[in-house]
Amino acid sequence: MTALLPHHDGSALHVSDDAPALGDVVRVRLRVPEGYGPLTAVRTRSNPDHEPEWTDAERIASADGWDWWEAPVTVRNPRHGYRFLLQHRDGRIEWLNQTGIHGLETLDAEDFALVAEPAPPAWLHESVMYQVFPDRFARSAQADAHPTPDWAIPADWDAPVDPVMPGRAHQFYGGDLPGVAQHLDHLVELGVNLLYLTPVFPAASNHRYDASSFLRVDPLLGGDEAYARLIEEAHARGIRVIGDLTSNHSGDRHEWFRAAFGNPGAPEEDFYYFTDDDNTEYECWLGARSLPKFDWSSEELRERFITSEDSAVARWLKPPYGADGWRVDVANMTGRLGAIDLNADVRRLLRDTVRGINPDAILLGESTNDATSDLQGDGWDGAMTYPSFTRPVWAWLSEPNGAPYLTAEGEERTESWFFGMQTGGIPRYTARDVVDSITRFTGGIPWRVRLGNMQPLDTHDTARFATNAAPGTVPVAVGLSMTLPGLPVVFAGDEFGLTGVDGEASRTPIPWGTEDRPETAERIALYRDLVRLRRAHPVLGTGGLRWLHVDDECLVFVRESEAETVLVLAARGDVDIELPPGALTGSSAAEDLFGEATLAVAEGGAVALAAEGPAFAAWALPGVAAPTPVDLR
Questions:
Q1: Host H or E run for residue 267
Q2: Catalytic residue among 366, 374, 458, 461
Q3: Where are the alpha helices (DSSP H) in 159-274?
Q4: In the chain, what's the furthest Cα-to-Cα distance?
């Protein structure tokens, strides 16, 4: 039986204000199991201006088996970290930070953190994102009238994806924005309410990350009018739309690059890192000459890309388009080259511009590995990142020997693709490893920012999870994406059961017309039901997270708020566990929400959970009553 431990997180149960201003006093609360210790004192330790500051906590109430302690914290820096110190009667000292309870002094980087920066709009935490790769989603009738571009290798909609260059980048199916608009009702039925489109700008590839302009929509996709119409029709259905910008680079056909290439003295030469006197050699993204890298020390680049009235960032957020924000590609490398690091400048400039145009817009950055240093609340509202959710879930729920794949150069790899990591295939994790990974890679990120981190099982850059999933584990994985803190993401086609062995093979055209096939209909229903679970329970968007049980085969947690609690069980194997008395409030009133599992309340208040694995289940329970301070002397 798992022991109860002191608990604090960044949710409203424990923090009085998640968007304070500098100088504000925030009340922070710690929950301690009755009988823990006993404790003689609880304090907070902050580190403003890198000099420790302490406040004393007061035990304000006892309820449902917990003592509640409360302390004031004055916000003195834009990111103000704090931790709790617990002093036991026997002289022992414990520290509580975002990675848990510790007997030794802890790192400032893993403190809980208050962020005195503009907060993202509330709708971000009410959203389930649906990602569309435009060339492969849907092809309208008008696409037939578009001429085949010079770079393209035409493909029929039902032709297999070519994973090897040049087909990898140039195979062209002709999906367009009117095609997306024609299937918006599918998104409504699925329950998603945020559409993320990968780039829509003209380019010389099917992925369009090599833009030749940021100021117009590719005519092959229907042009500017089609983009405006799609956003209008999405908004009419309650679906917001965000675009995709490459802040690290343009394409080598971009109008700015063509103006500077071979033309020393051109105004645009300062936009890039030219390395010779003739402006013909230059820095590029990971050696790809088609993707010349931006030099963000250029004030004119900053103006044209971000700050001017009709900049690349501003243009599409304004009428007649009215997009609801941006996902920024390669945000982690933006402004960074060797000894140069302008990343913080750029992300803050992006944030200030986006919020200045539309305070209700969001800004997400791509940072696919450890994103902690960039996710401190001073720019990105969250990130597309993989180590805090996607990779550990794959490593737990995939088959030991998955599908082989071909590299872009046509080299056959016998092991499964795993996010480009040189691990010899998919690692083998337990459920304990999953929780440890989530804790490690979120321990340095403020709670408010963590809630905005994209939580995909796969994307256009990865193999599809279903390709290597162990039998019966897809509901477990999808369920976790919908119930753990973060922004759930459905990559278009996952709900059709599509597979793909790497990031190119996953970009399969959507097989419209197959929705009524029994296996496809079952998968669509699974996604619909789990998306609706997420959206029907606001606590899954903003509520706290408390782990109740973790072993090799299963994990159990609650998302908690004053209004409601959702209990979640996720397991690869069979489950027969008991939660101690006091772990849950109101467990006798538990209501089944999803899955095949049993919950029984034993005499004395212990809770027994049982299921045949793999299993994903959720229950609704009463909320946690925020205590009213009383005299406990």
A1: none
A2: 366
A3: 167-170, 177-182, 184-190, 223-236, 255-260
A4: 82
As a whole number, mean pLDDT of residues 228-256 equals 98
Length of the chain equals 633
User: E strand or H helix at 418, and its extent?
Assistant: none
Q: Helices 474-483 & 390-397, crossing angle to 10 degrees? A: 150
The continuous run of DSSP H or E covering 609 comes out as strand 607-611
Active site residue 366: yes
462 closest CA partner among 428, 491, 433: 491
The Cα-based distances of 426 to 370, 497, 598 in angstroms read 18, 20, 32
pLDDT greater than 90 at residue 299? yes
Question: CA angle at residue 444 from 47 to 463, to 5 degrees?
Answer: 170
CA dihedral 470, 474, 477, 479 (to 10 degrees): -150
Residue 618: both structure tokens together: 């959720």
* List 70, 110, 329, 374, catalytic entry: 329
* Predicted TM-score (pTM) of this structure: 0.97
What would the pLDDT profile of 599-624 be if each residue is shown by its tens digit?
999 878 899 999 999 999 999 999 99
Residue 329 appears among annotated catalytic residues = yes
Average pLDDT, the chain: 96
Q: Are 480 and 473 in contact (CB under 8 A)?
A: no
Q: How far is the C-alpha of 178 from the C-alpha of 597, rounded, in Å?
A: 43
Q: 219: phi > 0 → left, psi -120 to 50 → alpha, else beta; which? A: alpha
DSSP assignment of 310-348 equals: T-HHHHTTSTTT---EEEEETTTTTTEETTEE-HHHHHH
pLDDT digit string, tens, across residues 83-98:
999 999 999 999 999 9
Specify the DSSP class assigned to residue 304. Answer: I
- What is the three-class DSSP state of 372? helix
- Tell me which amino acid residue 239 is: I
Which position has the token pair 């609706």? 532
| pLDDT tier, 282 (very low <50, low <70, confident <90, very high otherwise) | very high
Give the closest residue to 214 by CA, choosing from 180, 246, 174, 175.
246
Does residue 160 have a cis peptide bond before it, meaning omega lies within 30 degrees of 0?
Answer: no
| Bridge partners, residue 132, by sequence | 197
Task: For 75-175, list the strands marked E by DSSP.
Answer: 79-88, 93-97, 100-102, 112-115, 129-132, 153-154, 171-172
d(CA 185, CA 219): 24
Non-local CB neighbours of 388 within 8 Å, separated by 6+ positions: 437, 438, 441, 442, 453, 486
For residue 633, what pLDDT band results from cuts at 50, 70 and 90? very low
Whether the upstream peptide bond of residue 456 has omega within 30° of 0, thus cis, is: no
> What radius of gyration do the chain's Cα atoms show?
25
Q: Alpha-carbon distance 254 to 604, whole Å? A: 69
- Tokens 């006093």 sit at which residue? 25
For residue 169, how many other CB atoms are within 10 A of its CB?
Answer: 21
Residue 46 backbone phi and psi in degrees, to 5: -105, 180
Cα(185)–Cα(320) distance, integer angstroms:
22
Of the chain, the percentage scoring pLDDT greater than 90 comes to 93
Measured between alpha carbons, how far is 39 from 59 in angstroms, rounded to an integer?
Answer: 10
